[in-house]
Structures are given as structure tokens and as C-alpha cells.
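Example 3.2
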Amino acid sequence: MVKSQGEGFWVRTRILNAHEQHDWDKEAANPEEMVRFHFVLIFFFCCILSPSSAATSNQTNKLVDKVCKQTSNYTFCVKALYSDPRTPAADAYTLAYVSFGLAYLNATATQKHIAKLLKINTTTPVSHKSLKICQHDYHKAVSALKEAYNDLNSETFFQLAKLAAHAAAAADDCQSAFRGTHYKPLATMNAYLKALSNICVVVSKLFTEGTF
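Structure, written as C-alpha cells:
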């Protein structure tokens, strides 16, 4: 667990204690059961904590450092991966579960958020159309990440990077749907999914390129 002080430490400890009650066994884990926990953690680490607070842990993982140095946002990568209590001692296989799990959970939570936005009567015809496009995009993202998760369960690695890239492309397509408008309700979530997918791509290459 990463260290912090004061109220932030208490809140994060409480979240992780609840999180640790779930079964983290690789073969039995169901990512949908963890949507609420990880989405809260990603938001907490990326929007509330200071940049340096998530970088310190009781046990650092050199593999995480190696992976994150190859991503587009090192700080985000470290914060995201260390939001999972398995990360400090994770090998490449566990780290793949962590990274794809985080991306899947983010995409699923965003998919539900889009559904809620579509029910709001105040949306304009243009924004409604854009949200419908994003709904389709996130359906593709969730499907790709679910397939990747199943591949991990069967220890099939050669398609992982491609599936992660599909998820990142879906986030880009969703963001493009709002181009030319001031209404961009999914900008942050799209950025998160793209960054998380980028982590997944790098982790996937640990298997296909034999770099771990």
C-alpha cells in the first residue's frame, strides 16, 4: 500500500481494506465485481493525491518502473498500477491482470456513465448523437478488454497488445465525436482509458518480446 498522511491516508486505507475482501485469485477473478473499487481508486489517485504520494510504497517493483518508463505518462502509470495491492510483488503475469483489469473497469464504468447521460432530457440533439457514438465505441472497448482478460485466463498473449490498442482507439473515437462542441462530458474518462490502454500495450510486449 502506498503511504500518505492525514485524512487521505484514512480514506485510501478504508477503500483498500474493502477492496482486499474480494477474491484476487487469477483464475477465478471476475473484473465486473471490482468496478466500484477500482474506478474510485483511479479517480482518487489521479485527481486528488499529489504527484509524488503514490510513488512511494512499502515494496517497490522494478518491473513497474520499467513498464511505466515506456508509457506516455509515467506518473499516471505508477499511480494506477500501485492502486492494486498485488502490484508491489507482481510478476509480469500478475501485472497484466492488474493493467487489463484497470482498463476494463474504467471502460465499464464509463459505459454505465454514458447510459446515464443519455437519459438526461437536457442533452441537445447533437450531444445525444455524440453520446450514442460513444456508447458504441465503449461497447467495442469493453468487448476488446473482456477478450483480453479471457486470453490471460487461457495464457494466450499474442493478441493482447492489439486488443489494448482497440480500446485506446475507441476512447479516441469517442473524444472525436464531440469535436467542434463545448460539451465534452467524457474527456477525462477517455483520457484515462487511453492511458490505461497504453499501459496494457507495454505490459503485453513483455510476453511477445520476451523483455521481462
